[in-house]
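I hope you will forgive my troubling you with a question about protein structure. The matter concerns a single protein, recorded as an amino acid sequence and a row of backbone structure tokens. Please examine both parts with care and let me know of anything in them that strikes you as inconsistent. Thank you for your consideration; the sequence and its tokens are set out here:
***
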Amino acid sequence: MRRMTGLVGGLVALAALVALVAVAGLPWSPAAADQTVVVGGLRFGRGVFVTDRDMSCTVGIGGGGLSFYPTPFIGVGPAPAPLGASSVRYQLKDLGHAYGAEFSVPSVTSTTAAGMSIASQTEATGVAVVEYQGPTLSSNERWIGLAHLTEPPGGFRPVDTAGLTYEWVLWNISAATYTPEGSPATVAHFAAAHGGDADGQFLIGFGCDGSPYWTDAWRVGTPGDVTTYDIERGHPVPTISSAYPIIKAGQHNRMRSLVMEGDVSYDFVPVDLEGKGFRSKHFRYLGTVEIVLYHGSAKFSVHPIRTTAYRWHYRTSDFADGSVSPTLTLQVRTRVFARISASRLHVGQRLVVSGSTTPRQTGTRVTLWRRSDAGRVRLAAGVVDRHGKYRIAMTPRGAAHWTVYATVAAVPGNLAGHSKDFDVTVVR
């Protein structure tokens, strides 16, 4: 038999507190009817006011954070899942804390469903918490209701929190104080006696004694408008993009990735960048980057000297299956370095242009051009030697002002490249 008792105690002074994000004014969109939504990898996405979080088994909210946050494992549990194929396993290393679901709601008194289904192989101890800023409270204060939960071992069964009797405290966030308030009461009775309804949060979690438990079928809502979340393993796919589609050899270029499942992004997950060089048969590991911001992208700088194919690899984790992005081929131009013997010459004096290429394009023709109103005019040519260097010489036959540059033709693995422009004045 399920046992639920309201307790207030163990009031803990906090070294630091972070105020909860207020949900007042958020654009709530009521559903037309009860619905079930499949959630991959515990990624609920934007516009869904459900998340997983920790809670204190003594004061509900506050009381110090976790030193080690649990990594959820999503897979086959000790009993068939109530929905779909998978459920979520949590186990905490920090005793005195619970982990589970948080539901942000537009009305704490209208909410009639806020809970989850759980299964455990030993007795499961947890807490239910209600938190809201009553109409008579300051922005620095919250009402917190706390009820302790105990579930016997066994297969999945629903546990709901909306109708429980809670013991209540007034939480002063900045002062880190918890002041008991009144007798145990349901949310509706407490709100009626303390200024009325408001938006707020319902929380439910287990693991207070460190024992593992499994959960699925998280649900929240009002009569006729209850959403149940079927939590399954994620199947995300990394995207791939490049700051530039074409670069010069050795130029830094940033490869980017998001790990997406539909329109939902995966944050705080690592992704590996892999590259396959020109004429290589296999991709090789280049580095790992963690996506740390909501809809932030992984970024990794590369600087190939030949055309290279890249892909991002999300590796199988405890909560999602691995996958690779599409392949993106970064085109690379030969980099042509050049210098001129002089920018001012006399008629009959030789103009010498010398330099090198990256990569070494041994045996490749280098052409010297001058710009003209009609396009370009070939002046002379040379060949890249085995050291990757070249030298071109020509003699101007009349006074002129030229803009000259050198080019290298496209070769396998590299697009054509050109040097910077040089201004040359020829006088008599």
About this structure: The longest strand covers residues 141-151. Residues 1-31 have pLDDT under 50 and may be disordered. The chain has one helix and 36 strands. The helical segments are 187-193.
